[in-house]
Design brief:
The protein is an all-alpha fold. The protein has one domain. The chain is 69% helix and 0% strand. Helix 2 packs antiparallel against helix 3. The mean pLDDT is 95.
């Protein structure tokens, strides 16, 4: 999986971020422990989560 940087996450819509989060989560779960894919997915999850948390919630 390609790393989703914080900069890239900031340029995406909230809907796109939710889709990327799902993709990163599945990649993380399926990747072998210690692999580059797993590290990239975990970093992506953290970056996406941080960006979503910084956005206002309209609920």
């Amino acid at each position: 999986m390609k790393l989703v940087s914080r900069f890239e996450a900031a340029s995406r819509s909230t809907s796109e971020l939710h889709g990327l989060f799902k993709e990163a989560f599945h990649t993380f779960a399926a990747a072998p422990r210690g692999s580059e894919d797993r590290r990239a997915a975990l970093s992506s999850l953290e970056n996406i989560e941080a960006e979503l948390a910084s956005r206002p919630s309209y609920l």
